[in-house]
Design goal:
The structure holds two protein chains of two kinds. By secondary structure, chain A is α+β, with helices and mostly antiparallel strands. Helix content of chain A is 26%, strand content 37%. Chain B has a domain of 80 residues: ApbE-like superfamily (T-fold). The N and C termini of chain B lie far apart (70 Å). The chains are: A alpha+beta, B alpha+beta.
Chain lengths: 123, 349
């Protein structure tokens, strides 16, 4: 009897061990896609955005308002009171670590992910 | 049996312990005329804030000292250079002049921080990108003919003079790299061994991200998103110069900020150059030198070798990609289908 119980114990233990990688993959590792974005104004945290909550956001910067659009897990600058429009040319950001900045207006947005696909973006 | 059970318990405990992830401190700074992004692995919030605070003060100081068009130490140097007489150079600028002279000589003058007047003539010595039109061709020709070079400078201790009245210093293609090197040094002094300092897309990474190397995405020069990615561990800088960073369009033509000192006009043929090297200042200067050298491998390869960089990826204006052989297998393309790549060993005549 005791031997039979022991075998079940090992089975349970084995199953638990096998479950760990799948739990890790599901809840820990993430896909690298961001779940939220952070907005900074003048180097200070200004807002956190849920990337699955569609919205247009008005962010007051040094020169005026920058407009951010959140759509379908992505975020982008759609307007900003700068000459270069580099922030708008950055386009949609979706991967964790991706960042766009309007330097003249001192507004930046970065996609955050638990396990970002990239630790840094070179450009 | 009891021993096996206790072994299982120990194993399980070890697995659970692995779940407590070391803290990653991540902070952004708007300094040095750009967005500086600092990532520190296995550094808690308080230590991280302290470290990044120190970097912020250093960056602000360097930005003020080395700025080419704001009033400050470099501005004063540029006012005194045309006199041709010896003057006391501010000590904060001396090491930058020495390093710039070394790198300029190694690049055969393609990286040339003595062409401050040309940069200004084009309107790129400004916080906002110019809108055109391009400058008068006669004015460009006149400045190119004066041939300002770093070798025209004579530095004796901190006494400096120029033998060419046309020399004006603009460290736009070096200061960022030099500052990133100082930031990495500062982090190491504070005992931080795993970090990325990313100054407006140009970065140096040391150590690793725990059990994996750092992962760095390289942005596509012509469309939103990532062109390729690379893993870094140990100590390496990745710098990219591109015609998309600062430019204006006039009468349907793009004029960007990387000026060829030989012609006085923006360099042609490449949309981006990504350089790998240990020191960020070398990577920074080399990215400009290779952009100026242009897409012909008989022009850029000797410059890459002379500068001693560890790798380079050049993207032509029509999307054609060339790479040094050392990057084969390291650069992973993110685009489907992956682009055709010419490796430089196959390009040699």
């Amino acid at each position: 009897m005791s031997r039979w119980l022991e075998r079940v114990d090992w089975l349970v233990l084995g199953a638990a061990l096998l479950l760990i990688p799948s739990l890790y993959a599901t809840f820990w590792h993430g896909s690298g896609r961001g779940q939220e974005a952070r907005v900074w104004v003048d180097g200070k945290p200004w807002a956190r955005l849920d990337l699955f909550h569609e919205q247009h956001l008005r962010v007051p910067g040094r020169l005026g308002d920058s407009i951010l659009e959140v759509h379908d897990g992505r975020v982008r600058f759609v307007d900003s009171p700068c000459n270069g429009r580099q922030c708008i040319h950055s386009g949609w950001l979706a991967d964790g670590g991706e960042v766009a900045v309007c330097l003249p207006n001192r507004v930046s947005v970065q996609v955050m992910a638990d396990d970002p696909r990239f630790d840094a973006i070179n450009f | 049996m009891r021993r096996r059970a206790s072994l299982a318990v120990v194993l399980l405990a070890a697995l659970l312990a692995a779940c407590s992830r070391p803290p990653v401190h991540h902070e952004q700074l708007l300094t040095f005329g750009t967005l500086v992004d600092v990532t520190l692995w296995n550094v808690d919030a308080e230590r991280g804030r302290h470290a990044v605070g120190a970097l912020a003060r250093d960056f602000d100081y360097m930005h003020n000292a080395w700025h080419a068009w704001h009033p400050g130490p470099l501005g004063r140097v540029n006012q005194l250079l045309p006199t041709g007489k010896f003057f006391s150079c501010p000590p904060s600028i001396v090491p930058l002049i020495r390093r710039a002279s070394e790198l300029s000589a190694a690049s055969g003058g393609l990286f040339n921080p003595a062409i401050g007047q040309l940069i200004k003539l084009w309107g790129f010595a400004s916080d906002e990108a110019p809108s055109g039109p391009p400058p008068d061709p006669a004015a460009i020709r006149a400045l190119v003919a004066q041939n300002p070079q770093m070798s025209d400078l004579e530095l004796d201790g901190i006494r400096l003079r120029s033998h060419n009245p046309a020399v004006r210093l603009d460290f736009g293609a070096l200061a960022k790299g030099y500052a990133v090197d100082r930031a990495i040094e500062r982090l190491r002094e504070m005992g931080i061994e795993n970090a990325i300092v990313n100054a407006g897309g140009d970065l140096r990474a040391i150590g690793r991200h725990g059990d994996r190397p750092w992962r760095v995405g390289i942005r596509h020069p012509r469309q939103p998103g990532i062109l390729a990615w690379v893993e870094i561990e140990g100590d390496e800088s990745v710098f990219t110069s591109g015609d998309y960073e600062r430019y204006f369009e006039y009468a349907g033509k793009r004029y960007h900020h990387i000026i060829d000192p030989r012609t006085g006009y923006p360099a042609e043929g490449l949309s981006s150059v990504t350089v790998f090297a240990r020191e960020a200042d070398l990577a920074d200067a080399a990215a400009t030198a290779l952009s100026v050298a242009g897409p012909d491998p008989t022009a850029w390869l000797p410059v890459a070798r002379a500068l001693g960089i560890s790798g380079a990826m050049l993207v032509g204006t029509h999307g054609h990609i060339q790479m040094t052989p050392g990057l084969r297998g390291r650069i992973h393309f993110d685009t489907q289908p992956p682009p055709a790549v010419a490796y430089s060993e196959a390009l040699q005549p």
